[in-house]
Design goal:
The chain is of the alpha+beta class and 263 residues long. It has 8 helices and 15 strands. Strands 3, 4, 5, 6, 7, 8, 9, 10, 11, 12, 13, 14 and 15 form a 13-stranded mixed sheet that branches. It is globular, with a radius of gyration of 20 Å.
């Protein structure tokens, strides 16, 4: 296998990771209204603003994302799910899945500037056709690729794993045109929540905010003709797990080219 094949595979992996960054599916507070109905003591606007403030103030959070359209289409080159714990210092740990079930999975660990990334064999085979992806998977033997955010192949991880970048993206300053409708109290994640719903451009967004203080966003759903997304938020301010892969479980990206010369 040529070095070019590995470079292309890594580029595909990082592009997918960047595409599934929590910045991209939905910014849940993109439309905090100026006008909303009043019920049970707090308006929809007040609840949304408090939830936004609490998310913006969080030092860490665990986010999951499910894209049911990507799952149904089964395109192995499209991100369909993620489960990622991340903080404002750029640390993170979690997984990203592509396409439908079994189409590909990437494990991610980032501590400071160091990055560990382990795509499974299904991912490599989908990203690098013609048998080269299978050869990459065999070469890595289930090990993590290890490098830093100075490595071009891993630079995209910096924003994917940075809660501060996500917070900058959703900081609307309290402006917006789409009015929120406050629904009846219900339950999400075994927690009492108040649904806040808005519709704009043919898409319906529902924010599930905890009924009790501190009012926090724990789920955001977006539905439309070409959209079927769910984001969840939990473990506010809980530290990101600090463990990293053992050296025996990793291969340095800089040294991998040397191994490729023997393939």
């Amino acid at each position: 296998m040529a070095r070019k094949a590995l470079t292309g595979a890594l580029a595909s992996a990082v592009l997918l990771l960047s595409a599934v960054s929590p910045l991209s599916p939905v910014s849940p507070f993109s439309s905090v209204p100026a006008v909303a109905s009043d019920a049970d003591g707090r308006t929809a606007a007040e609840l949304a603003e408090q939830a936004e403030d609490n998310l913006l103030d969080a030092d860490s959070v665990r986010m999951t994302m499910t894209d049911r359209i990507a799952e149904a289409e089964g395109a192995a080159t499209e991100p369909s799910a993620m489960d990622l714990a991340l903080d404002r210092d750029g640390n993170c740990v979690g997984t990203i899945e592509t396409g439908g079930e079994g189409d590909g999975r990437v494990e991610i660990v980032k501590r400071g500037e160091e990055v560990w990334m382990k795509p499974d064999a299904a991912f490599w085979k989908a990203q690098v056709p013609g048998g080269e992806g299978e050869a990459v998977a065999e070469l890595l033997k289930g090990r993590y690729l290890h490098g830093t955010t100075d490595d071009p192949a891993l630079q995209g991880m910096a924003d994917v794993c940075d809660l501060a970048a996500f917070q900058r993206d959703i900081d609307t300053g309290g402006s917006g045109d789409a009015a929120l409708t406050k629904g009846e109290e219900t339950n999400r994640q075994d927690t009492a929540v108040v649904p806040l719903t808005s519709e704009e451009g043919g898409e319906r967004t529902t924010l599930y905010v905890t009924a009790d203080a501190p009012h926090r966003l724990i789920e955001a759903d977006q539905r439309g003709d070409d959209t079927d997304l769910t984001l969840t938020f939990e473990d506010y301010d809980k530290p990101v797990p600090a463990g990293t892969p053992r050296p025996a479980e990793t291969v340095d990206i800089g040294k991998l080219e040397e191994e490729l010369l023997d393939v």
